[in-house]
Amino acid sequence: MPYNCWFECVRGCGRRYSVFDVIYRCEDCGGLLDVEHDVEALKHRSPVAWMRLFEERTRSNEVPYGSGVWGKKEWIMPLVENDNVVSMYEGHTNCFWARRLGEEIGVPDLWVKMCGNSHTGSFKDLGLTVLVSVVKQMIANGQPIRAMACASTGDTSAALAAYAAAAGLPATVLLPRGKVSTAQLIQPIANGALVLALDTDFDGCMRIVKEITKDPTIYLANSMNSLRMEGQKTVGIEIVQQFDWEVPDWIVIPVGNLGNVSALGKGLLLMKELGLIDKLPRIAAAQAQQANPLYLSYQTDFEEYKAVQAQKTLASAIQIGDPVSYERAVKVLKRLDGVVEQATEDELSNAAARADRTGLYCCPHTGVALAALFKLIGRGKIKRDDRVVVISTAHGLKFTDFKVGYHDQALEGVTSRYANPPLELPATYDAVSRAIDERFGK
Is 357 part of any domain? Predict the structure, then answer.
């Protein structure tokens, strides 16, 4: 059965474009574009047959279907030829049963989807494999693409640079100078991208990259480009598959530019439309209080929206005051009975540290999600018998400075309640023995 997909305006005006067109907004109404699929064609395969196919492909060595994204190629981007797929075996990240933390907070059925256990250490790999593959196909088709470009707070730039390098394609990244962790900054440098550190914040970088990509030979790689969300929507699909096709009660996700929550809902809604699931989870979107335009809009039932000037936050990847995918995110949250919560710098830091004490190693953005979870449990919104999945968006090792600052009790505005600095002792048996006795008792 031939499968098809296209760009379509999210505002419902009906305008369509090819996924190989260099276009990011509807030419009629200015709305963002989503990738839409020929669902009737997809329905020719039964829900059970789709499940069986996805299970057979999981972690197989059949290229490109062993990837967690490309194993669902028919649902993601069927128009890219297999020879033009640029994959690093992304996806299939584990769901960690956070049993000890769950028991502490009163929700024993707590899981953390470890999206940072990926090639570049974040969930952004899922979207960039699709976007870079489409660009490679476009070039093969004869389109004159000189380079791909993105604005980034770190993780997008790392993923774009890595996948571009694997494809042998040029990339440039615009970063806010001094606002990206060292671990994130070195990734695009190492992969050979043109790295531009600008004296502005993410929103400033985004404004410039939108101007640059008006040149059709420079292809926009931010989540304003909905190709990204086609890969990222596999997170929700994978979660359900990992629970033997059962849907959790809640998914908690940290949000900034709002492409990830939009993609999460997109995948789940497609599963329901194709009959693989018969209910939808509720979504809790978590923002840092220092950059909280979605939370403020939620307080008005999404009747009002105002961009904010994002303030410095330890959750640097979501330090975004004017999220591109606001319209998409609101549609998803309304469909999935979603809620929005926020976390202070103190709350996110201590939530991450508390989780670390139970075996995790959380980035600050996962700390935002966990802090929101703690609040929702405290208010009785999330119940003891609910199955909850928290999305961990990046690997904690990308934020070593955050970890060190916490345990050195050097983070501004944060009281480090779980600080565990090393003890510096003389190299004697008595000193070591005494320290062990003091910590663990005799």
Answer: yes
Q: Is residue 274 part of a domain?
A: yes
Other CB atoms within 10 Å distance of the CB of residue 124: 34
* CATH number of residue 297's parent domain: 3.40.50.1100
Q: What is the DSSP letter of 295?
A: H
pLDDT tens per residue, range 170-210 = 999 999 998 888 888 999 999 999 999 999 998 899 999 99
For residue 405, give the nearest of 360, 358, 352 by alpha carbon: 352
pLDDT > 70? residue 1: no
Torsion angle of the four alpha carbons 423, 426, 428, 433, in this order, in degrees rounded to the nearest 10: -20
Instruction: Give me the helices (H) in 299-416, please.
Output: 326-335, 345-356, 364-378, 400-407
CA distance 234 to 397: 24
Q: Give residue-wise pLDDT tens across range 69-88.
A: 999 999 999 999 999 999 99
CA angle 19-24-29, nearest 5°?
Answer: 110
Let me know if residue 47 belongs to a domain. Answer: no
Please state the φ and ψ torsions of residue 430, each to the nearest 5 degrees: -60, -45
The number of folded domains in the chain is 1
Peptide bond connecting 64 to the previous residue in cis, omega within 30 degrees of 0: yes
Is 372 a member of any domain? yes
From first CA to last CA, the distance across the chain in angstroms is 70
And the tokens for 150? 């993105």
CA distance 259 to 325: 6
CA distance 337 to 356: 30
| Domain housing 281 | 95-120+229-407
| pLDDT tens digits along 118-127 | 999 999 999 9
